[in-house]
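Bug report (template v2)

What were you trying to do?
Predict the complex of my protein with adenosine monophosphate.

What happened?
Run completed; filing so the output is reviewed.

Input:
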Amino acid sequence: MAKKPSIQAPKGMNDILPAEQPYWLSIFDAARAMCSFYGFQKIDTPIVEHTALFKRAVGEATDIVEKEMYSFKTKGGDELTLRPEMTASVVRAYIEHGMQVWPQPVQLWYMGPQFRHENPQHGRYRQFHQFGTEMFGDDSSAADALCIFMGYSLLRELGLKNLVVKINSIGDDACRPNYIKALKDYYKNNSKKMCALCRERAKTNILRVLDCKESKCQELAAEAPQMIDYLDDACKKHFKGVIEFLDEAGVMYIMDSSLVRGLDYYNRTVFEIYAQESDGVTLKTALLGGGRYDGLVQEMGGPKTSAVGFGMGIERLIIVMKELGIKPAQSGSRPDTFVVQLGELAKKKSFLLFDELRRGGIHAKATLGRDNIKAQLRVAHKFGVTYALIIGQKEALDGTVILREMNSGAQETVPVEKIVRVLSDRLGRPLPPLED
Ligand code: AMP
């Protein structure tokens, strides 16, 4: 057995090897196309931020801030943190760049790594990636519904068919205090039946008690007062509006009063999207989570701005795609041709040939480190190409290339400037336009 290298990737952080890349690329491409269609613009923010940003935005009494942040002090004395989520960073950027004067709504999307010091397990990593959207300056139910619909449509487009949206409203500052009071009373009367952790949570962030995974806490949560009964008229109307959009759009959803999400900044709509097991009943892990956060921009020092967004976990999505046997759209792809080059001059000329092929949309491979024709043709066979292109000293001087049919071995000489048209024709591709 091979000896383990003494230095390995940090625990819970993974390499994404070439064989995995087709999944990542197909998700990125689908996400980009979806965002562009709905008018979302890409944003990138630094991977580290001031620790205070997450403490304030995500909330001191959350799992992320309490236990999961990679925080450190720099040599210059700055307290920084590897970002554990993106909404806080995007809100910071919105304020810092005065995006409130841009035409509203400001619609942004991102894709990148996040870091949480969690216990690594299947589908839970310390470095993981999210694709997400944030929409600022639109307080309508339609904005929430569009967010959900985009996530849902993207997952469907990637081949996931049995999806369920879990949705809830956690009210707002006007109506939630009444609910919190009712919840506190309920749990005070039942404190003996709670797990030890929830007894602690109840003191700092009572809502989190609702999504505890302990069975006795889940039983308690099932009987607990429900936010939906405490929503004021404005929140009720907003929530009803979101549901109506989902109904019209044919999105499968279930209302789940225990869904509160672990971050402090949410108000009104919160949601998660799950893939269903083949039994059509059981839910796999959450692929995406999000909600409305109308108070956050102001809390972070910006103007009063409504906002809604979601984050989708790419690793989990890929796990589910594989479980369901879904192949990524760009599955690594077999090259169209293989360029065999013989001798130094041919090797040098082959760069121009590559450029000609690339611009003509023909996907070519080569092994520039090899000189032997047989070895190169063997590699061409391995790639499974129907035609190879051979360029030797004579062809390099003539400006031609040999087109070889791999199966029969039949060869013909073609001028380099015609090779794209000839190959496209043989491969049954639409011919590129003639250049003047
Ligand atoms: P959150 O930011 O916690 O709302 O998470 C949004 C989505 O990111 C989840 O639905 C997961 O798909 C994914 N996610 C969150 N934490 C992790 C993790 N530690 N490892 C892998 N994926 C994660």
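What did the reviewer find?
Residues 85, 116, 118, 123-125, 128, 130, 286-289, 311, 313, 315-316 surround adenosine monophosphate (CB under 6 Å). The two ends are 61 Å apart (CA to CA).
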